[in-house]
Amino acid sequence: MIDSPLAPIIVGTRGSELALVQATATEAALAAAFPDREIIRKVIKTTGDRRTDVALSEVAKSEGTFDKGVFIKEIEEALEAGEIDIAVHSLKDLPTVLQSPFRLAAVLERAPVRDVLVMRKPGGLAALKKGATIGTSSVRRAKQIEWLRPDLKVIDLRGNVPTRLQKLAKEEAYDAILLAEAGLVRLDFISLGNGDQEIAGMSGLFVTRLGENEFFPAAGQGAIGLEVRASDAKNREISEAIGHHETWLRITAEREFLRLLEGGCHTPVGVFSSLSHGQIHLAARVFPEAGGMPKSGQSNGENPLHVALELFNSLS
Questions:
Q1: N or C end of the chain: which has fewer CB within 10 A?
Q2: Which residue in 67, 85, 93, 115 is the catalytic one?
Q3: Are residues 8 and 85 in the same domain?
Q4: Residue 93 annotated to the active site
Q5: What is the pLDDT of residues 141-173, one digit of tens each?
Q6: For residue 175, what is the DSSP state?
């Protein structure tokens, strides 16, 4: 009797350049852990990918969802329908609490978590003249810039990473833009490191890394999340087999803090975590919707859920 072949593992992803790089990393990890399984990729176009003509918040309003929910809706529909087995996401795009049919099964090892400022010359925030214009689609980034440099002007900027870089290079509307370091590293625009760097292939654009303990990143930033059907124990185990434990501890603390805030991907809150000798350090900066001074706090401990609760209770 001939054994029937194992079913392939079908991975679902958005089609942006960054999403495809993240899918490739996931597929490589799956292939290494399960060499006897075929890995199939299914690219899914989301509402957020189609609607780049207006701000994310406006797209979300028309869809009745949160800002980043427009990047996961169609992928989750494919997951629930059984068209894919594992959904690959930028973790910061996932809501803090998933709908009941779904479960966050694992995360890959985290890339750098910092935000970066991209300009036509090196120097960072201090080098920006009064009244300079910064482009971003992130409310969190906008609030922090307005707090750190209230003299600057923040305007909406949509598009994938290469598109945003091209807009800065070619359009005078922007003096600088804010991006995640992880995306630039994964797309080979910059290398791992510190200090200022020139963007590869785009002469005249420079990156300044903003320290994560000064310019707080988003919860889950730099992490690749693997989502499965809540009832699918098999693919949950497959995802867990390629997961990274230390990253899981950190993002669990960060996402639990957001849950306690009743916040989500649209909430103007930055969370910074680190892990050393089994101890999680967690700090946050929460901005009021109407502007003004943020609340902040920090906590330490071994249990990510307890650390998140302690941070929540420490906000002042």
A1: N
A2: 93
A3: yes
A4: yes
A5: 999 999 999 999 999 998 899 999 999 999 889
A6: S
